[in-house]
Amino acid sequence: MEAEKRDTPKSDDPYRWSDYIRPVRITVWTWKICGLYNGKPQTTRYRVYRAVFNIFLMVVYLFTLSLNVFVMQTFEQLVLYIMYIVFTEIVMALKAIVTYYKFDQLCDLYRQTLGSDFQPLDAEEEQLHRKGVASINRYLYPYLVTTNLAVASSCLYLLQDDYRLPYFPWILGIEYGPTKRLNYGVLFAYQVIGMYLHMLINVAIDVQLSYLLGMTSIQLDLIGKRFRSLHTSEQFRESFVGLMNHHGKVQRMTAEIEQLFSAAYFAQFGSSGLVICASAFKTSSMFNLYELTAIQNLLYMLSMIFQMFLPCRFGNEVTRKSHLLRTSIYSSRWYEMGLQERKTLRMLLQRMNKPLTLKAFYFFNYNLQAFTTTLNMAYSLYALLQRNALKKV
């Protein structure tokens, strides 16, 4: 992990963000750029910057986007061109609220991942830890690249001569077109910059959740390894209380993560099917297939699939590895321990019958089954839209 020695004080960085992996540090930069950084102390200049940012790039932007719902002429246009972006922006707004108002809670969770109780104790645990962190990076970097390319590809509209805006066609009644190119340039820049910053907010929370769940699954790996290393009754008596305290901290951390992100990911899971379906339909539609903007739709669809996949994948790992703890306990040399220790292990096995699971508002599960269910629903909606489109030909 990209970390320096933890015993070195850093007065200029009280949150010690430099101790975290690069994707996490990128989210901290996002917080600061988008006015969501709620650490103390804060300067008057930064509070003024936050107010200006929220007015022009949050309130005005989202208000104008919402008004476009009434501009679309048909239901198909409404769904394919506006509503799926509106749903994405609603999720973004919920994530921004979580970041700002739960900033201290987020920071406490981050500190736990680097706390002394969560550090590896030997070479084998170091290897497990490095492998887990490498797995987190392996999923987060492609996601960051894909989402940035998705927004950057909106500039492909500039290569066409129809003067279309990339995300929504109406902005407060301001006219634009071949005879008003300055207006078009300003509105185009406003939409792209606004959408890019909103994308950063959206992605930041996805990275944070993936990191926290990934670090939780690493702790389950370490606990499992320590249970497998128990060979005698003496080792069991020396380690049992510490192992149970460690497992209890992981349980509480999992519950806190679930509670913190529940509302935002309930909305994300609920809207992902429609968003993926709409972007897939736009990509494959005949009227868009031979245009450069099809690249934007394709990258947007891949970003949405990635966004849905990450919490499901890392949540699934937490559930899977907590379930494997039973196997790790049974893999210890319990048969060489005393009767009392064997009874304790048996009760522990019964206690761990139910693995750790995460849900969004007690409805959507963070697992791969939820991911495949969402894709199936998106494909069903896509097939329906394609069938209706073919009937009109």
Automatic annotation (TrEMBL):
Say if the entry is tagged with keyword Secreted.
no
Q: Topology relative to the membrane, per the entry? A: Multi-pass membrane protein
Which Gene Ontology molecular function entries are recorded, alphabetically?
A: odorant binding; olfactory receptor activity
Q: Name one Pfam family in it.
A: 7tm_6
Check the record and name the InterPro entries matching this protein: 7tm6_olfct_rcpt
The keyword Membrane is annotated on this UniProt entry: yes
Keywords in UniProt for this one?
Membrane, Olfaction, Receptor, Sensory transduction, Transducer, Transmembrane, Transmembrane helix
Q: Where are the transmembrane segments?
A: 51-72, 78-101, 140-159, 184-205, 260-281, 293-312
Main localisation: membrane
The GO biological-process annotations, alphabetized, read as: signal transduction
Superkingdom of the organism of origin? Eukaryota
Q: Where in the cell is it found?
A: Membrane
Q: Name one GO cellular component term.
A: plasma membrane
Q: What does this protein do?
A: Odorant receptor which mediates acceptance or avoidance behavior, depending on its substrates. The odorant receptor repertoire encodes a large collection of odor stimuli that vary widely in identity, intensity, and duration. May form a complex with Orco to form odorant-sensing units, providing sensitive and prolonged odorant signaling and calcium permeability.
* Quaternary structure annotation from Swiss-Prot or TrEMBL: Interacts with Orco. Complexes exist early in the endomembrane system in olfactory sensory neurons (OSNs), coupling these complexes to the conserved ciliary trafficking pathway.
Family that this chain belongs to: Belongs to the insect chemoreceptor superfamily. Heteromeric odorant receptor channel (TC 1.A.69) family. Or2a subfamily.
Q: What is this protein called?
A: Odorant receptor
Lineage of the species this protein comes from: Eukaryota, Metazoa, Ecdysozoa, Arthropoda, Hexapoda
